[in-house]
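Appendix B. One record, verbatim.
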Amino acid sequence: MLTEKKVREVLGGLKEPFLHKTLAELNAIEEIKIKEEKNHVSVKVLIAKTGTSEQLQLQTQIVNVLKEEGAATVGIRFAELPEEVLAQHRNAEPENNQTLLNSKDTTFIAIASGKGGVGKSTVSVNLAVALARLGKKVGLIDADIYGFSVPDMMGITNRPVVRGEKIIPVERFGVQVISMGFFVEDNAPIIWRGPMLGKMLNSFFSEVEWGELDYLLLDLPPGTGDVALDVHTMLPSCKEIIVTTPHPTAAFVAARAGAMALKTEHEVLGVIENMAYFESKLTGEKEYVFGRGGGDKLAEELNTVLLGRLPLNQPDWNDEDFAPSVYQEDHQIGKIYLEIAEKVTGLLKK
């Protein structure tokens, strides 16, 4: 069982990311609480700047170190060091390095929708997997910070590790994945405000070791809120795919996301109509459960193309290779995703 002394010992050797001194040297471990019955450790740590990508890196290190020592769950609070400590230890901050945001070889594709519940995250995951199946180098950012779901959809159980100054994304089905879900304990709710979300999103670009990527997909939150605005600001050359259902109301709402993309000079690559119909396995008859025509109407309104229609169906999966939202390559819908991926690469000529 972990003790307060042991926690202080294992965390004391970690370096504060701005002052480059250990937490022990800075006396930065302000509080330690241990719930023995749940094997839960919570700590309060002081750093030079909160709400930064450096905080995210240190948070990951703390969680990994404490779990290696036997903690079942970890809670972390951050606060800023006193000004006198900063003045005593402050050094020049490291120079900015080349990041993915500066890359000329990576095409950014945001997957957007006007409202929730249209299957945007499912589309993001399966389009990323389909592009990887075509031999492309693909990354996926789960930028739906409040409603992160990509790790669960892809059956990812591992967490990123920190190597040197960078976070290493988790790979699954040939896709490099990073998600807010990796940095939250026990599916805890996120209560951050817009500015903090923007900083976190920026860290996903600049502090993650993506390697060489052909495509980086971003699963955006539904609507046109803070995160979507941050993406438009950070990635002026980002392409967008709008997801809708066939219902005219859904298409009407999705048009707002498309209009936002156009106003910020993001090219809309196309529209994907999800839940387009249900096809009976017994008769082959198609039932248009959510109506018809929404995807075509939206594509026409946005002056773009309909990339594909996806029917209602479930992926096949088993306990050994559990990924509840990923369609196999030979599945009916898996084949449609491959066709959509080919259309996307054709439009981008890459």
